[in-house]
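Team,

Forwarding the record for the chain on the shared tracking sheet. I've put the sequence and predicted structure together so nobody has to dig through attachments.
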Amino acid sequence: MNRTIRIGADPFPPYQSYCADGSVRGIDADRVTAAFCAAGYDTEIILEDWPVVERMLNDGAVSAAFQVQPTPERLKKYRFSKLLRSAATELISSRAELKLDSYRQIEERNLTLGVIEGYTNGPDIDALDSRVKRTYPDNRSLLLAISRGETDLGVFDRGVKTFLMEENGIHNLYPVENMTFTRPLHVIFLDEALCGEFDAALERL
């Protein structure tokens, strides 16, 4: 009989979201589930906002969490799996004519940047002055704010952006040329042995 393991993640369609029957499906959820299954585990995936997920992991309420980008602070606290996937991340705007050569120009030109509360977006964006940032509770809220011009720019995973634009009938968002970057995403653990089991199973997929 397989052991059951609880895993946390934030809602992030099309990568993980609740279905009508209460199950969690999506590109990343299915891959994580398959790897744990190959390692001999049944899975229960719990979707909450990221700060809640991280607290659950720290408190032992879940044994793993995904999809997580490494930072120096996180690397000190958690064991990171092998690469789950690489994410193409864009700066998007409702202003098709907006051009940037660097993230620093967001500050220099007094632009506003929408971000998801509690998310890590890479060192260049995370280092920007908090005064240029506007935080939003979830991806849909951020997407609508950019579309309405409430913030000049926003940081978005390309797959999530495409999914939500189609779902919400939004057509006025454009990636800023030359500002797309790639982020590595992983599953994180407190238990090194469990991480090793997951990595071995992930390699077999």
